Amino acid sequence: MKINKIYIPFLFFSCVALGIVIGGWINYPVERTYAKNDYRAKLNRLLNFIDNEYVDEVKTDSIVDLTVTNILASLDPHSVYVTPKEQALLADNMKGDFVGVGINFYTYNDTIAVIKPIEGGPAAKAGIREGDRILFADKTKLFGKKLKSEELYNKLRGEPNSEVVLTIYRKSTKKTFKTTVVRDVIPLKSVDVATLLNATTGYIKIERFSETTGREFHTALQKLKGQGMQSLVIDLRENGGGVMESAVAIADELLKENELIVFTKNKKGAIEKTYATEEGLFERGKVTLLIDENSASASEILAGAIQDNDRGLVVGRRSFGKGLVQREMNFDDGSAVRLTIARYYTPSGRSIQKPYRKGDAAAYYKEFEDRFESGELYEKDKIKISDSLKFKTKKGRIVYGGGGIVPDIFVPLESAHGEESLEYILKTGVVGHFVFEQLDQNRKLYANLSFDQFLAAIQKDASYASKFEKYLEESGVPLKLENSKALVNRYVQAEFARQLFGDADYYRLLLKEDPMIQKVLKK
C-alpha cells in the first residue's frame, strides 16, 4: 500500500519567501537615458537588456519574482509576495466561502478519495458518499497521475450553477458510475463548533479569522446564551490569525463601550486606536481564552485586549509573537504583496511582536524550535520575559511585552518529553488520513451504529495507537508512542467520530480529557 510521505509540521506559520511582481512589462528603447542614481530605472533597464539581448530564452517574469523576493527578504519576515494562484485560494479562505462541489478529500494512492461530502452540499445531493473515488471530472482524468492541489481545485471549482460530470468508483459495491454535480457556494466555517462544556460553560472554537468570523461568532454567542451559558471559553489554539476586523468584532462583543481594543503605530508615529462600541452581546460573564505557541496575529490581538482590560484570563502557553500590520496591495495579474506598514499594540501599550533581524527569516522561525529546546513548552519558568518590558492592565496586573502573549495560567504540552513533535502531528491531516484508511477497510462495521454504540466499540479496541505508530513509520516518521498512547487514542477516536458523525462529536471526544479545558473547569 502506497502512503504519502508525512512531514512534521514544526513551523505552522512560516512566511512564504517569494517576491512581488513589478507591475506592467514595459519595453523601453535602448536609447532611453536614465538619471545617474535612479535605481528604479536601473532595474527596469537591466530587465529590458535581458529580455531583448540575452543569448538564451529567459522567463523574465521569473526574474522579476526572484529579484523582488530578495528585496522583500531584506525587510521583515511577514512582508510577502503571493502568486495569482495562491492569492485566489487565500482570497476564498479569507472570504469565508468558495464555489465548488463540496467535498473533503485527499489524494490516496494517486486517486482522489472522498473523506466526507459536506452535508447538504452539491456532492452530497448528487449521491456522492464518503470513501468514493473520483476518477474523472468531465473528460479530465484525475487518477494515476500526481496532480498538484491547485490543479485539483481548478477541476472541481467553477462558477455558481455550472455543471461537472464526475465519474465515481464506489469501493463498497465495486461499481463505477457517473453523476452530474451542480456547483454552488460552499461556506468555509471559521467557527468550528459552539457547544456547552457543562450546564453553564460555553465553548467556541475559532479556527481562523475570515471575513465571516465576526458574524459566525455572534450567531454562536446567541445560540449558547439561549442554552443558559453564563461563562465562555474561546479556543484560539493553532489559530494563526487572518482578518483583523473580525478579531475586533469579537472583542467588541465582550468589552464594554469605549474600552480600547487595539492601536497601531506607523513609521511616522501616527497612532490609530480602535475602541469597543455599545453593542456587545456578552459584556458580562466569565471569559477565558485558550492560546498556544501557534496562536498568532489576530488571535494575539484578541487575547491582549481581553487580558489588558481584565475582561478574562488567558490560559495555555506563550503565543507566537506576530504584531506587524500588513496591507495587501493587488496587481493586475491577480498577484499581491502584503507589506508591513505598522505595528500592533495591546491596550496597555505593549507590542507582542517578537524580535527579528532584517533579512534573517531563518533565525526568526528557528525561535519556534528554540522553545522546544529551552523547555518553555513544559515549564512556565522557562518563558523568557524582560523586566524592562513590564506593562499594567486596567486593574494594575503586570503583563509583559517583547514576544507573544504570556498566559495568566500556564498549561504544558500534553505529549511526553522527547515526543514534542507528536502533538503537532496529531493536529494535522495525518490522523484524518489514517482514520480514513482504517474505515476504508470495512465501512460496514460502523454503518448502522449509534454514537454510543460506536463509542463502546472503538474504546474496546486498544490497537489503534500501535497501528498509528506503524502508519507513521511507513510514512517516513519513525516515532515511538509508548508514553503517549492515551493522547493518540483520544485524537484517533475523535477523528473516527468526525468522519462518521460530524464536527460536534469530534470535539465532544477531543475536549473530554483536554488539559486546558480541565484547568478552566476546575477554576
Explain this structure to me?
This protein has 523 residues and is α+β, with helices and mostly antiparallel strands. The protein has three domains: 97-187, Pdz3 Domain, CATH 2.30.42; 191-410, 2-enoyl-CoA Hydratase, Chain A, domain 1, CATH 3.90.226; 420-522, no CATH class. Helix content is 33%, strand content 21%. It has 16 helices and 21 strands. The strands form five sheets. Strands 3, 4, 5, 6, 7 and 8 form a six-stranded antiparallel beta sheet that branches. Strands 10-11-12-15-16-21 form a six-stranded mixed beta sheet, sandwiched between helices. The chain is globular. 35% of the residues are buried.
What is this structure, in a nutshell?
Helices cover 33% and strands 21% of the residues. By secondary structure, the chain is α+β, with helices and mostly antiparallel strands. The strands form five sheets. Strands 3, 4, 5, 6, 7 and 8 form a six-stranded antiparallel sheet that branches.
